[in-house]
Amino acid sequence: MFKxxxxxxxxxxxxxxxxxxxxxxxxxxxxxxxxxxxxxAASSSSESSATSNNSSSKESKTVDWTKSSETKAYPDLDxxxxxxxxxxxxxxxxxIRDGADHNxxxxxxxxxxxxxxxxxxxxxxxQAERGTHFYNASEKEGAxxxxxxxNHGEYLFHTVPVDANGNYKKSVADNIGKKASSHGCVxxxxxxxxxxxxxxxxxxxxxxx
Length: 209
Description:
Blueprint (H helix, E strand, L loop, with lengths): L1 H59 L22 E6 L4 E6 L5 E9 L9 E4 L4 E7 L4 E10 L4 E5 L10 H4 L12 E3 L1 H10 L5 E4 L1
């Protein structure tokens, strides 16, 4: 009889041990899964935060209007006799395109066009009027390195604006490449405007859209 009781106890103890091992294994698996999910969620949150930070960084980027828009050299227009200027109001960019090669972009400039849609859209051509400096007393604003493209001196490419003393107006200049802020002209960085003044020939096509 005692042998039968001992046998039963052994069976019961074995079942209990098996059950404990099974429960322990389940708990370990559940813990590992929870840890993995937590790690995944943290990683996802980190990536989301990084993306958000990068987006904010791009949106808040201020163009250095004292430098050329690109680090590469400006195009040699003697090699591109059919080059033209593409003024994109939505993107606040001026693209120098090669009309002989499927309008390939040769160079991209940051710009600021006219606020309240004051920059006229259409196809024009560079005119004879150009100079190193002007000042409009009625607007209390001027600029350097100007080149006319419509109405013989009314609509120009030129630098970011200057005040009556010839000092650049930083509060307006910081808008270049981001939003329209001129009175209708196309504002460029200082080196870009100087290059246009010195290199863009009279008669070159200008498309504003």
